[in-house]
Amino acid sequence: MMQSFRDITPIRRPNRRECKHYYSYLSTLREDFNYRCGYCNDHDGLRIRSFTIDHFVPQNPEGFAHNIKPNYYYNLVYACRYCNAEKRNKWPTKDVNVSHDGTIGFIDPTEEDYTKLFRRSKSGKIIPSEDSNLAKYIRKELKLWLPIHALMWKLERMNNLIDQIENELRTTNDQVLKAQLEQLYFLYLKKYRNIQKSVFIENE
Ligand SMILES: [Zn+2]
User: What pLDDT is attached to residue 204?
Assistant: First the structure.
């Protein structure tokens, strides 16, 4: 069964006061993107990888120039290092006003249309919606097929589940239920650590 790619489409706050250096926006941008990479939706709370600021229209795109300032807040995307590294200077339409032509190019991750590009497989893989060539292009260029993204998705879900079990354990007085929950708790914790370990190996 397919699931939605992400629950929330991020929004950049309006009228962000201009800062001289774009890096000064990191904490507000991080909040606006709900602590997630705009492109792959990986959460930054697991502290496995560092996150950074991506310029949606690259600062030095291949084949043309533009005058969007590097510190223009509304061109910035909170991004994981994987997606940021893959996007680099790509802007295939070579037109600053055209982000894509329906087949190649990008969509600003703060647009609803970006959320609609993808779905999640049962195991958390990022899959292009229906037959969107643009979704296929973006998935290929940003390497959204990398196993790390499905792993991060699984880790987050498992983390939520462990939290829920912990809450139940804290509140229940039923000893039979408590014993069952404890079993589940250790089972999921073990699974969680195994996935976490595989993520670390991949990063070496
Ligand atoms: Zn990412």
Answer: 43
- How far is the centre of ligand 1, averaged over its atoms, from the C-alpha of 15 (Å)? 26
What digits encode the pLDDT tens for the residues 116-156?
Answer: 999 999 999 999 998 899 999 999 999 999 999 999 999 99
Q: Is the dihedral of CA 29, 40, 88, 94 positive or negative?
A: negative
Residue pLDDT, tens place only, 98-107: 999 999 999 9
User: Which amino acid would we find at residue 194?
Assistant: N
φ/ψ of residue 173, rounded to 5: -110, 0
Taking the centre of ligand 1 as the mean of its atom positions, its distance from the CA of residue 142, in whole angstroms, is: 8
Distance (Å) from CA 87 to ligand 1 centroid: 10
**Separation of CA 141 and ligand 1 centre (Å):** 12
* Alpha carbon of 143 to ligand 1 centroid (Å): 9
